[in-house]
Amino acid sequence: MADKSVAVVPHFIDGRILKGITNDFYPTRPCFHVVPKSGHGLYVRISDLKAVFFVRNLDGDSERGDLKGFIAAPRDSQRGRKLAVRFRDSELICGYSLGYAPHRQGFFMFPADTGSNNLRVYVITAAAAEIREGPAAEELAQRILNSRAA
Q1: Between the CA of residue 79 and those of 26, 75, 92, 99, 109, what are the distances in Å?
Q2: pTM of the shown model
Q3: Domain assignment of residue 65, yes or no
Protein backbone atom coordinates (compact mmCIF):
# COMPACT_ATOMS: atom_id res chain seq x y z
CA MET A 1 0.00 0.00 0.00
CA ALA A 2 1.36 3.43 -0.97
CA ASP A 3 2.15 6.02 1.70
CA LYS A 4 -0.52 8.74 1.57
CA SER A 5 1.24 11.13 3.93
CA VAL A 6 1.18 14.78 2.97
CA ALA A 7 3.05 17.79 4.34
CA VAL A 8 0.76 20.17 6.22
CA VAL A 9 1.05 23.38 8.19
CA PRO A 10 -2.01 23.84 10.39
CA HIS A 11 -2.54 27.44 11.54
CA PHE A 12 -4.37 27.67 14.85
CA ILE A 13 -6.84 30.40 15.78
CA ASP A 14 -4.58 31.41 18.68
CA GLY A 15 -1.64 32.09 16.32
CA ARG A 16 0.32 28.85 16.77
CA ILE A 17 1.65 27.05 13.71
CA LEU A 18 2.52 23.36 13.47
CA LYS A 19 4.57 21.77 10.69
CA GLY A 20 4.42 18.07 9.96
CA ILE A 21 2.87 15.29 7.97
CA THR A 22 -0.57 13.73 8.11
CA ASN A 23 -2.20 10.74 6.54
CA ASP A 24 -5.67 11.05 8.08
CA PHE A 25 -6.99 14.52 7.22
CA TYR A 26 -10.58 14.42 6.01
CA PRO A 27 -12.63 17.63 5.89
CA THR A 28 -15.70 15.85 7.25
CA ARG A 29 -13.96 14.64 10.41
CA PRO A 30 -13.53 16.77 13.56
CA CYS A 31 -9.83 15.93 14.04
CA PHE A 32 -6.68 14.53 12.46
CA HIS A 33 -3.11 13.70 13.46
CA VAL A 34 0.07 15.62 12.60
CA VAL A 35 3.54 14.15 13.06
CA PRO A 36 6.17 16.93 13.34
CA LYS A 37 9.71 16.42 11.99
CA SER A 38 10.85 15.65 15.51
CA GLY A 39 8.44 14.35 18.06
CA HIS A 40 5.36 12.28 18.39
CA GLY A 41 2.08 12.59 16.57
CA LEU A 42 -0.28 15.28 17.79
CA TYR A 43 -4.06 15.24 17.76
CA VAL A 44 -5.41 18.38 16.05
CA ARG A 45 -9.04 19.50 16.26
CA ILE A 46 -10.48 21.35 13.28
CA SER A 47 -12.37 23.63 15.67
CA ASP A 48 -9.01 24.98 16.96
CA LEU A 49 -7.80 25.97 13.49
CA LYS A 50 -8.21 28.80 11.02
CA ALA A 51 -6.73 26.84 8.10
CA VAL A 52 -4.64 23.85 7.07
CA PHE A 53 -1.99 24.61 4.45
CA PHE A 54 -0.99 21.64 2.30
CA VAL A 55 2.57 22.42 1.22
CA ARG A 56 5.22 21.29 -1.25
CA ASN A 57 7.74 21.01 1.56
CA LEU A 58 7.88 21.89 5.24
CA ASP A 59 10.90 24.19 4.93
CA GLY A 60 9.42 26.56 2.36
CA ASP A 61 11.64 29.17 0.74
CA SER A 62 12.48 32.08 3.03
CA GLU A 63 14.05 33.95 0.08
CA ARG A 64 10.83 33.96 -1.95
CA GLY A 65 8.17 36.58 -1.43
CA ASP A 66 4.67 35.33 -2.13
CA LEU A 67 2.76 37.40 -4.64
CA LYS A 68 -0.22 39.14 -3.07
CA GLY A 69 -3.66 39.53 -4.57
CA PHE A 70 -4.72 38.06 -7.90
CA ILE A 71 -2.11 39.43 -10.32
CA ALA A 72 -4.41 39.84 -13.36
CA ALA A 73 -5.96 36.41 -12.87
CA PRO A 74 -9.20 35.35 -14.57
CA ARG A 75 -12.50 35.51 -12.64
CA ASP A 76 -12.98 31.75 -12.93
CA SER A 77 -10.49 29.02 -13.77
CA GLN A 78 -10.20 25.24 -13.86
CA ARG A 79 -9.37 25.56 -10.16
CA GLY A 80 -12.73 27.19 -9.46
CA ARG A 81 -14.20 30.55 -8.66
CA LYS A 82 -12.02 33.44 -7.48
CA LEU A 83 -12.08 33.92 -3.67
CA ALA A 84 -10.44 36.28 -1.19
CA VAL A 85 -10.44 35.35 2.49
CA ARG A 86 -9.62 37.77 5.30
CA PHE A 87 -9.15 35.95 8.57
CA ARG A 88 -9.98 37.45 11.95
CA ASP A 89 -6.25 37.98 12.56
CA SER A 90 -6.14 40.10 9.33
CA GLU A 91 -4.26 37.53 7.23
CA LEU A 92 -5.40 37.63 3.60
CA ILE A 93 -5.31 34.71 1.19
CA CYS A 94 -6.42 34.85 -2.42
CA GLY A 95 -7.16 31.93 -4.70
CA TYR A 96 -9.76 29.72 -6.29
CA SER A 97 -12.27 27.23 -4.94
CA LEU A 98 -14.52 24.62 -6.48
CA GLY A 99 -16.28 23.88 -3.19
CA TYR A 100 -16.94 27.12 -1.30
CA ALA A 101 -20.34 27.29 0.37
CA PRO A 102 -20.89 29.68 3.30
CA HIS A 103 -22.85 27.15 5.37
CA ARG A 104 -20.13 24.46 5.31
CA GLN A 105 -17.46 23.95 8.00
CA GLY A 106 -14.72 24.65 5.50
CA PHE A 107 -13.56 24.48 1.91
CA PHE A 108 -10.43 23.90 -0.13
CA MET A 109 -8.88 26.65 -2.16
CA PHE A 110 -5.91 26.81 -4.51
CA PRO A 111 -3.59 29.81 -4.11
CA ALA A 112 -3.64 32.50 -6.80
CA ASP A 113 0.17 32.49 -6.63
CA THR A 114 0.95 29.17 -8.32
CA GLY A 115 4.63 29.49 -7.36
CA SER A 116 3.77 29.49 -3.67
CA ASN A 117 4.88 26.66 -1.38
CA ASN A 118 1.16 26.13 -0.69
CA LEU A 119 -0.46 23.56 -2.94
CA ARG A 120 -3.93 24.10 -1.49
CA VAL A 121 -5.49 25.43 1.68
CA TYR A 122 -8.40 24.09 3.70
CA VAL A 123 -10.07 27.20 5.13
CA ILE A 124 -12.21 26.91 8.26
CA THR A 125 -15.21 29.11 7.44
CA ALA A 126 -15.82 30.20 11.07
CA ALA A 127 -12.24 31.57 11.31
CA ALA A 128 -12.81 34.00 8.45
CA ALA A 129 -13.90 37.58 9.09
CA GLU A 130 -14.75 38.07 5.43
CA ILE A 131 -15.00 35.87 2.33
CA ARG A 132 -15.71 37.36 -1.09
CA GLU A 133 -16.22 35.76 -4.50
CA GLY A 134 -15.61 36.90 -8.08
CA PRO A 135 -15.21 40.67 -8.61
CA ALA A 136 -15.91 41.27 -4.89
CA ALA A 137 -12.85 39.09 -4.11
CA GLU A 138 -10.64 41.38 -6.19
CA GLU A 139 -12.11 44.44 -4.48
CA LEU A 140 -11.46 42.98 -1.01
CA ALA A 141 -7.89 42.05 -1.92
CA GLN A 142 -7.18 45.50 -3.36
CA ARG A 143 -8.73 47.28 -0.37
CA ILE A 144 -6.60 45.30 2.08
CA LEU A 145 -3.40 45.53 0.06
CA ASN A 146 -3.87 49.28 -0.46
CA SER A 147 -4.45 49.84 3.26
CA ARG A 148 -1.25 47.94 4.09
CA ALA A 149 0.77 49.94 1.58
CA ALA A 150 -0.37 53.27 3.05
Answers
A1: 20, 11, 19, 10, 8
A2: 0.88
A3: no
Q: What domain range includes position 140?
A: 76-149
pLDDT higher than threshold 50 for residue 71: yes
Instruction: Please check whether residues 84 and 143 belong to one and the same domain.
Output: yes
What CATH number is attached to the domain comprising 105? Answer: 2.30.30.100
List pLDDT tens digits, range 72-116: 555 555 668 999 999 999 999 999 999 899 999 999 999 988 888
Q: Rounded to whole angstroms, what are the CA distances from 77 to 80, 82, 85, 94, 115?
A: 5, 8, 17, 13, 16
CA-angle at 28, arms to 24 and 29, nearest 5°: 50
Judge residue 91's burial from the number of C-beta atoms within 10 Å of its C-beta, 0-12 exposed, 13-18 middle, 19 or more buried. middle
